[in-house]
Amino acid sequence: MLTAKIGKVGKVLICGMKGVGKTTLLEQLIYGNVNMDTELHPTIEDIYVASVDTGRGGARETLRIYDSAGLQGKGQLPRHYLYFPDGYVLVYDPTDPSSLDMLADIKTDIDRNKEKKDNVAIIVLANMRARNRRDSPASPPIQVTQPQSQQQQPDPVESVLNRANSWCARERIKHYTVNAMERPSLYEPFISLCARLHPPPTKSSFPQLRQVMQKTQKNDS
To answer: Where is the composition biased (Polar residues) (predicted)?
Structure first.
């Protein structure tokens, strides 16, 4: 039997406002068994382990993902969450603008403690699962023509996504639109994060010492 060689372990914290679907994202990513009927209880704290193929060949990399309890209020992270992670996954719900606003508070907390740990990677996920909730109103069988003034009003979800794109661009953070009900949408963000946490070793521009010694010995003979 062939087994994959396991590489380094990256510690990642996933966080955001309570109810944005952090645990649902992780359950779908790791196990792929979440659907619209799945019931998940609010998280206090949990740990998931994912073995990731970054596409570079060789050893698979490991992510140890810490699922934190949903934040409320100003969204300040507990102190111990600011010291051990190598990376952060910040999640918000595009149907709830306040969940995006909370990420700014979380990012400020992380920046204040960056000197505690170098090269901290951060990505932002817009969880579109809210658009597929079972309790969302069904489309009416008869289409009603709205007044022109109402038709021209911008989509509030698109407005939140555009604001998130602008904020992430300023902060130099990668922003992904995902759906907790669609597992393939979760692959790219976590593979990209894992690749950033485990960059390939840089090759030295100097020749190997052994090669230098062999060349010197050849010239002396």
So the answer is: 203-221
Residues in the chain: 221
Model pLDDT, residue 76: 76
DSSP result, 18-87? TTS-HHHHHHHHHT----TT---PPPSEEEEEEEE--SSSSSEEEEEEEEEPPB-TT-PPPGGGGTS-SE
- Sorted by where each starts, the structural domains of the chain and their CATH numbers stand as 6-133+153-220 (3.40.50.300)
Inform me whether the pLDDT recorded for 131 exceeds 60: no
pTM of the model: 0.77
Q: Which residues are CB-contacts of 52 (< 8 A; sequence separation ≥ 6)?
A: 60, 61, 62, 63, 190, 191, 194
Work out the number of other CB atoms within 10 angstroms of the CB of residue 35: 7
Q: What would the pLDDT profile of 48-70 be if each residue is shown by its tens digit? A: 998 888 777 767 888 899 998 88
